[in-house]
Amino acid sequence: MPLQEKKILICVSGGIAAYKINILVRQLIKQGAEIQILMTPAAQHFVSKLTLSTLSKRPVFSDFYSENDTWNNHVELALWADAILMAPCTANTLAKMMHGQCDNLVIATYLSAKCPVFIAPAMDLDMYQHPSTQQNLALAEDFGHIVIPAETGELASGLSGQGRMAEPETIIDIFCQYFESSKKKSLTGKKVLITAGPTYEAIDPVRFIGNHSSGKMGFALAKAAAERGAEVILVSGPTSELINHQNIRVCPVISAKDMYEEVFKHYDQADMVIASAAVADYAPKEIAVQKIKKNDDSLTIELVKNPDILKTMGAQKKKQFLIGFALETNDEEEHALQKLQKKNLDMIVLNSLRDEGAGFKKDTNKIKILTQSGAREFSLKHKQEVARDILDFAEEQLLK
Ligand code: PMT
Questions:
Q1: Which CATH superfamily does the domain covering 185-399 fall into?
Q2: What are the boundaries of each domain within the chain?
Q3: Which residue, 40, 37, 15, is CA-closest to 28?
Q4: Is 16 helix (H, G, I), strand (E, B) or coil?
Q5: What is the distance between the alpha carbons of residues 259 and 241, in angstroms, rounded to a whole number?
Q6: Ligand 1, from 272, 276, 380: best to mutate by most atoms within 8 Å of Cβ?
Q7: Average of pLDDT values for 117-126?
Q8: Ligand 1 centroid – CA 291 distance (Å)
Q9: What pTM was estimated for this model as a whole?
Q10: Which of 55, 136, 161, 169 has the smallest count of CB within 10 Å of its CB?
Q11: CB–CB of 353/359 below 8 Å?
Q12: Residue 12: in which H helix or E strand, if any?
């Protein structure tokens, strides 16, 4: 079954199309999915909790608290899901999602989510065409969400036009395609070494030099490689990202030197390396033993160059397929190509801080992949999808 064990969180908001959710839930369950339903307060006027909890075989939540005064933990709900579906998504819920107006459990859960988000809007035709709705839908795509456009036909108002929620069959097809493409087991038996996050270079016991990397890109790559059957070693600098997969071993490090040492414990066995970490190029020459006091008007810290982990891997390359990253702010392609050559890489993933929604901390990224023989550009996507694009491209190169 294409959706076997896939955990789908469906957030229902208050529109007449909510009646279609009963059918959607039944069909998703038939495809093997596990369903958890949340409702906005308004949704309960259109479809009953009893029907949806009976069909989904789970309690349906609509409030921050349950009747027995227990907390409906929106973070846990969000982390549980492999995908979130906002359906039907009214103009009001869409606007709240896009602008972080967190006044109900659905929005709190959406804002806590790390998984892909699918949006099936449903509303009257003029509401759908209104510039604010269209802007919010465009913004949703910029956030990397997958918008399932409303269909054209007869609407509850009696008018006819675009605004009907996509039919359950269409939504299920989209899910099946999405999960099918993420189900490839093409890396079974392969060892993939990934660096992620920032490095922190200590100045004294309380201060460090660091950068804005959150680890999201590297963790998404680890998840995507593990889902394809690879055995993944994830060497990560300080991050709040969490991952729990039987194929992934996380090796936490702090500084560039720590990362260098950890990476070379695993490098010889690796078939593929993906260096997504933002490694500090320099570190303080001396680390003060005590906290530095602010006695003077200025402070000079002498920095020394850190080892270039990826360049060393390139110099020692045997069987490994080496993938580097380049985060640039200007003359992007030129700099990325220089890194590809200098570090003896097989491909380099370029992301630019000039692209809206790309780079540090965001859930999305916009990349261009460069090799010695060409380049391919990708649109702005959720980092989990970007990770799949990178692996698809690498696998294509390996087959050449
Ligand atoms: O973690 P996120 O918030 O999700 O952000 C993701 C990201 C922006 C950090 C990521 O997409 C990215 O671009 N990572 C590389 C950032 C970077 O520092 O690039 P660079 O151009 O400085 O380095 C080039 C390559 O050499 C990188 O693969 C880097 O990991 C590697 N390198 C750099 C210096 C060094 N001393 N050792 C290295 O291995």
A1: CoaB-like (3.40.50.10300)
A2: 7-181, 185-399
A3: 37
A4: helix
A5: 17
A6: 276
A7: 96
A8: 29
A9: 0.68
A10: 169
A11: yes
A12: strand 7-12
